[in-house]
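Input record, target 12 of the design panel.
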C-alpha cells in the first residue's frame, strides 16, 4: 500500500485475506520539506491504522527533499541530515511510549530506496540513482543502521528491494554488480550482519529465460550473498506481481494461478517475507497487477481469492520439500499440529496423481473445498477403486492443496 493505509486502500480486505504485513513508503520530502520543518500528519495514520488492524509494517524510505539531495532517490549531500531524520522517525515509531506517535504504533522493518541498483538518472529519472555508487550506498546503510539498532533493537533492516534485472548492458538502467559491491563495502566496515538483517529484491516474471520462476532468481541472489559475507541472511521480496490484462497476454485466471505459484515457490525457497504489488491496478496492460479492478474494492479479481487461499492453507507451514511424480511440480509442507500438506500442479499437460491415503481434503487455487474425497468414491477418486489410495486429476499451472484426513 504505497499510498494511504486505510479502509479505502483495502486494509480490512487484506486483513481478511490473511495478510500479516503492510509495505508502505515514507517520503522524507513530505515529512521534512524544509530543514527544521516537520510534518508527520500524513504518515502517522499509516502506521496507526496498520497497527490497529494487527499488521506489521515495512517501510520503504525514499523521496529526498531538494534541500538535502540532488535526486529524490539517490545519495544525499550530507549523510548526517539523513541520519538525523531516521533517528527521529525510528524514535517516533518504535512503540516504546517515549516521543512516540499517538497510540505508540511500530514500524517493524526499514528498507532504503526502491531499486537502488538503478544507475541512469538521465534516461530513467523515476528510478533510484545509487547504481553506479554502491560504495556510497553501503556507507549510507552503515551510518543509519546503528541509529536504528540503538533506538529500536527489535526493528529489522534490509536494503531497498533490488530490481536485479534489465541490466545496463541490455539497454536498461540497472547495474548488475551493485549488490556484490555493496556487500563487499559493508564487509570492509565489519560483517554485513551488523548493518543488514535481510537481503531484499523484487520479482516480476519479465526474464523467463534467465529466471523462469522466483525460485531461480532467489537462488542467484542467495549465491551472491553467500559469496560476499551475507551467508545466512534471509531473503525478502517486498515487491512481486503479475498482470491480469489480456493485452499483456494474461487473464484473471492466469494471474491467480501465477500468484499462488509465486508464494508457494517463495516459501519453498525459504523467502521469509513476500508482498504482492499491489492491492489496486496502477494502469492498463502490465500495470494491471492489483488484486482489485481499478480502485473498486467491490470488484475483487480471482487473484484475491488465490491470495486468500494460499494465506489460509499454508499458514504456519514449514520444512518444504519437493514432492511429486514426473510432470508435476509439488511441495510437501509440515503443518502446525504435526500434519502435512502437499501443494502441486501439472507442468505441461493434465495428469493424474495417486495419494497414499484413504481420505483427503482438497482445495483448489480459488479456495473451493472438496472434503472429504474418499478412496473409491466415483465422484472424487479417479481410479474408481477401493485400494487404499485416492487418484486426483491435476491440471497445468493450477495449484491444488491436498492433505490427508481421518475418514468420517
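The sequence produced for target 12 reads:
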Amino acid at each position: 500500500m504505497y499510498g494511504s493505509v486505510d479502509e479505502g486502500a483495502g486494509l480490512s480486505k487484506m486483513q481478511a485475506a490473511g495478510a500479516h504485513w503492510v509495505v508502505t513508503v515514507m517520503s522524507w520530502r513530505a515529512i521534512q520539506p524544509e530543514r527544521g520543518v516537520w510534518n508527520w500528519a500524513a504518515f502517522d495514520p499509516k502506521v496507526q491504522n496498520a497497527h490497529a488492524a494487527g499488521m506489521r509494517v515495512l517501510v520503504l524510505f525514499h523521496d529526498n527533499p531538494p534541500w538535502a539531495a540532488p535526486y529524490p532517490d539517490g545519495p544525499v549531500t550530507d549523510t548526517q541530515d539523513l541520519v538525523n531524520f531516521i533517528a527521529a522517525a525510528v524514535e517516533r515509531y518504535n512503540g516504546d511510549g517515549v516521543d512516540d506517535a499517538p497510540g505508540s504504533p511500530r514500524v517493524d522493518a526499514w528498507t532504503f530506496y526502491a531499486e537502488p541498483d538503478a544507475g541512469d538518472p538521465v534516461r530513467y529519472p523515476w528510478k533510484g540513482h545509487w547504481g553506479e555508487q554502491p560504495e556510497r550506498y553501503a556507507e549510507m546503510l552503515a551510518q543509519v543502521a546503528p541509529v536504528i539498532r540503538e533506538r529500536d533493537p527489535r526493528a529489522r533492516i534490509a536494503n531497498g528491494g533490488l530490481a536485479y534485472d534489465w541490466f545496463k548492458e541490455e539497454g536498461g538502467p540497472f547495474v548488475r554488480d551493485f549488490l556484490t559491491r555493496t556487500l563487499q563495502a559493508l564487509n570492509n566496515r565489519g560483517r554485513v550482519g551488523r548493518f543488514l538483517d535481510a537481503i531484499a529484491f523484487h520479482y516480476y516474471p519479465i526474464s523467463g529465460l534467465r529466471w523462469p520462476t522466483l525460485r531461480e532468481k532467489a537462488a542467484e541472489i542467495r549465491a551472491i550473498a553467500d559469496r560476499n559475507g551475507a551467508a545466512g541472511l534471509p531473503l525478502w521480496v517486498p515487491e512481486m506481481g503479475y498482470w491480469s490484462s489480456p493485452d499483456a497476454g494474461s487473464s484473471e485466471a492466469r494471474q491467480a494461478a501465477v500468484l499462488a505459484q509465486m508464494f508457494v515457490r517463495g516459501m519453498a525457497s525459504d523467502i521469509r517475507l513476500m508482498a504482492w504489488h499491489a492491492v489496486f491496478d496502477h494502469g492498463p496492460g502490465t500495470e494491471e497487477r492489483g488484486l482489485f479492478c481499478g480502485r473498486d474494492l467491490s470488484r475483487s479479481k480471482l487473484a484475491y481469492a488465490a491470495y486468500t487461499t494460499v494465506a489460509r492453507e499454508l499458514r504456519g507451514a514449514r520444512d518444504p520439500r519437493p514432492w511429486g511424480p514426473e510432470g508435476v511440480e509439488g511441495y510437501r509442507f509440515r503443518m502446525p499440529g504435526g500434519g502435512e500438506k502437499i501443494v502441486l500442479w501439472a507442468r505441461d499437460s493434465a495428469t493424474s496423481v495417486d495419494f497414499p491415503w484413504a481420505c483427503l481434503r482438497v482445495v483448489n487455487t480459488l479456495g473451493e473445498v472438496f472434503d472429504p474425497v474418499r478412496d473409491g468414491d466415483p465422484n472424487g477418486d479417479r481410479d474408481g477403486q477401493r485400494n487404499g489410495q485416492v487418484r486426483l486429476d491435476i491440471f497445468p499451472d493450477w495449484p491444488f492443496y491436498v492433505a490427508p484426513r481421518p475418514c468420517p
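The mean pLDDT is 96.
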